[in-house]
């Protein structure tokens, strides 16, 4: 049973991406967040269900495109149709969050928003929820911007980073049993090259950026006003139009001129009161097939399912094959290879190179083969 304070907590689930590095399974028509990669349900369905542990059903909002809205209309769950916010086009995370902030603020001027990517994997959901609950309390107490960072265990070039500095040990939102920590944020860093990532790992003061943010609606509104004033004015125009006959037209007009911008670059890097909670809950953003391969390997260790007898591998090891059910695929003498087979496309990729799959989309587009994207 959620306490009364959680009546003012909202989940903002961002579901507008495509996941180009998971091509050819992830496509415009069915993007990454709507895939079931491990036979456990789609990632967005699991994100929505996880959100229900700290917000009420009517407080779950999803921002997506028109195709996402259609896919969500078939979702047999708690999501309310009026809580699906449609972006006319994708403009990265800052405009997405500004748009949803206008809707949430219209609903509840005392809202605390938990911003969640729709396509990340969380293995330890109980611990994740515990950390989010602490972040909600901290956001109320400090009126700061809270992010959740993951302790880095390798020099990863596919993730953004958060540099932590002063640890805050005196926070009334923590209980004595809590073993996570709160830090002030010194800096945000974009995806680094390997040498820089190795330096981050050695310094021990950099965390992976999970993309999860928590803040009071007033705090993020003030930061939009201070750091992105043009977008803030657009947000106010949308806010005033909500519920009127001009609502859709105003949003379309705004999206016709705003520029893409990430929330990290547009707001978080410039904000004055930013804090990071370190989190350990089995997180990965499943950004490429190497990530999927790693998780699938972990799943196989504990799986009781029978192996696929349509997959034959001779003298092959450390490889990952995904194919249509019932189709026979054979590998002989191959190692460290990723093979993704669909009805109309085939990807063969060396392990460690799947972060470059997005380049395929650019090449296919130049060749006039967009129907395969």
Task: Describe what you observe in this structure.
With 373 residues, the protein is an alpha/beta fold. It has two domains: 4-284, Spore Coat Polysaccharide Biosynthesis Protein SpsA, Chain A; 289-356, no CATH class. Helices cover 33% and strands 23% of the residues. It is built from eleven helices and 16 strands. It has helices at 43-51, 66-73, 93-107, 125-142, 194-203, 217-227, 229-241, 247-257, 263-268, 289-302, 358-366, and strands spanning 9-14, 60-64, 84-86, 112-117, 121-122, 145-151, 161-168, 182-189, 206-216, 274-279, 283-284, 311-314, 320-322, 329-332, 337-341, 346-350. The strands form four sheets. Strands 6-9-7-8-10 form a five-stranded mixed β-barrel. Strands 13-15-16 form a three-stranded mixed beta sheet, covered by helices on one side. Strands 5-11 form a two-stranded antiparallel ribbon. Helix 6 (217-227) crosses helix 7 (229-241). The radius of gyration is 21 Å and the shape is globular. The model has no long low-confidence stretch (mean pLDDT 91).
């Amino acid at each position: 049973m959620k306490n009364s304070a959680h009546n003012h907590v909202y989940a903002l689930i961002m579901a507008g991406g495509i996941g180009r590095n998971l091509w050819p399974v992830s496509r415009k028509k069915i993007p990454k967040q709507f895939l079931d990669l491990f036979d456990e349900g789609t990632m967005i369905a699991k994100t929505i269900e996880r959100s229900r542990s700290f917000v009420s059903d009517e407080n779950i909002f999803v921002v997506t495109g028109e195709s996402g809205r259609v896919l969500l209309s078939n979702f047999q769950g708690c999501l309310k149709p009026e809580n699906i916010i449609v972006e006319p086009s994708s403009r990265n995370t800052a405009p997405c969050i500004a748009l949803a902030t206008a809707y949430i603020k219209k609903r509840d001027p005392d809202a605390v928003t938990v911003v969640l990517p729709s396509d990340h994997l969380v293995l330890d959901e109980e611990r994740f929820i515990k950390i989010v609950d602490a972040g909600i309390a901290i956001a109320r107490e400090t009126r700061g911007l809270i992010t959740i960072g993951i302790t880095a265990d390798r020099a990863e070039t596919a993730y953004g980073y958060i540099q932590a500095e002063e640890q805050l040990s005196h926070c009334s939102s923590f209980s004595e049993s809590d073993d996570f920590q709160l830090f002030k944020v010194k800096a945000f860093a974009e995806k680094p090259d390997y040498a820089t990532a190795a330096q981050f790992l050695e310094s021990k003061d950099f965390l992976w950026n999970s993309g999860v943010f928590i803040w009071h609606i007033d705090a993020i509104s003030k930061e939009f006003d201070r750091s992105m004033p043009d977008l803030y004015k657009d947000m106010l125009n949308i806010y005033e139009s909500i519920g009127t006959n001009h609502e859709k037209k105003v949003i379309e007009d705004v999206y016709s001129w705003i520029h893409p911008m990430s929330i990290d670059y547009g707001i978080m890097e410039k904000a004055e009161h930013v804090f990071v909670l370190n989190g350990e809950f089995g997180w990965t953003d499943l950004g490429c097939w190497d990530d999927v391969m790693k998780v699938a390997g972990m799943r196989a260790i504990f799986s009781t399912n029978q192996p696929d007898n349509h997959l034959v591998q001779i003298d092959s090891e450390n490889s990952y094959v995904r194919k249509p059910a019932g189709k026979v695929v054979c590998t002989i003498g191959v190692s460290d290879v990723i093979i993704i087979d669909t009805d109309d496309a085939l990807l063969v990729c060396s392990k460690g190179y799947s972060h470059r799959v997005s380049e395929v989309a650019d090449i296919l587009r130049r060749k006039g083969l967009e129907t395969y994207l």
